[in-house]
Amino acid sequence: MKHKGAWLVWGAGVFAYMVAVTQRTTFGVAGVEATERFSATASVLSVFTVVQLLVYAGLQIPVGMLVDRFGPRLLIAAGAALMCAGQFQLAVADSVAGGIAGRSLVGAGDALTFISVLRLLPAWFPAARVPILTQWTGIIGQLGQIASAIPFAFVLRSFGWNTAFVSAAALSVLALVLAAALIRNYPGSSRPPAAAAQESGSSLAAAWRHPGTRLGLWTHFTIQFPGTVFVLMWGYPYLVSGEEVSPATASILMTLFVAVAILCGPWLGTWVGRHPMRRSTMVLLIAGAMAAAWLAVMLWPGPAPVWLLAVLVAMLAVGGPGSMIGFDFARTFNPSSRLGTATGIVNIGGFLASLIAMYLIGLVLDLLYSGGFSNGDLYSLTSFRIALAVQFAVMGLGIGGILRSRRIVRARMAGEGLRLPPLREALARERRRRRDERQGRGGTGQQTHTGE
Ligand SMILES: N[C@@H](Cc1c[nH]cn1)C(=O)NCC(=O)O
Q: Residues near 24 by Cβ (< 8 Å), separated by ≥ 6?
């Protein structure tokens, strides 16, 4: 059942997440100014991003346990306060150490936000709506990037570093006030007892032991990282220096990425709500499509045509919303008392894989350059293609994790007497459901039983 005030609670949570995404991405927009302000090279500046991501990923499990114990409201408000402090610190910092301290605070506040907002959904909305609302949370949150790319960039270029980062800090004050005023952890009297401190450790062990949580982790690991690596680090230099597309075309391709992620999110959310027993198959299909698109681009003789690059970007973009299926596994395979912990475990996956892939790609590019393979061009097309191919190894590791945890989940389901209908049977049932729907014969189209 949906509860009164649910949209307001969710709205304040999503706003806090959107602001977190803005704070997360402001530094990327300020690269040129940061180089001058901190007198730093590009590789020193990349440390800012890596430290921020490490802090974010490292805090996921403690934050998940804290959400289960204290509820999302306190954590969302604390996250906004930390991000405000971090952006303020960055506004006044003029040394690399001071800047990294600011970015670490931003990473910490960011880490508190997303899983706390997801934790609100099952408490306030009916189970059948949670997959689609999870997708909308992710989609609306990503719009925070637009606030960095347009108004933040404008203030930075017109009024300078200090004003821009103080303004960003002020946005988190607004998120904090709205969270404190509007968010309630549970509707009315339905508040379950908070987890006791000593229960937190055992709920972490229990969440980890459940193969469904690990299936979620590997899902997030496998299909979030190719898009993150592309957008946060290597996509733009690869397109412009490697594939030799113009900066304007590269920007259009990056915009296509955001558009595809927004468009396919609701479709995926509805699909997952209807076919909970086929979620891992969908995840494997998305992973296969991303790998196939990369392979086609890499094997193309000479620079790839723009249409093929657009197909690649579209496939990579599906990974953002696709990885949200990982959180659906966490939700449906864990009781609500340890949902935050399980969500935190899942959310480490994509960020860990992104850090590994970003580092390995940079390493291979450097090795090819120092070994004389690149003919003095660090970002040559062939070097880029060889370096980017390390993603297949990271993806292979993730697919191995998915298949293994899925096998254990299926064995456990079989032990509980739950039979997974063969794909042909499921497809025939879906065709019947659509026909009935077209002929106006009932059925909500939603299945709420769990599976993989
Ligand atoms: N998969 C992302 C969010 C997303 C949704 N649609 C596109 N991207 C994710 O896991 N986000 C975690 C976070 O903190 O942003």
A: 52, 106, 107, 110, 144
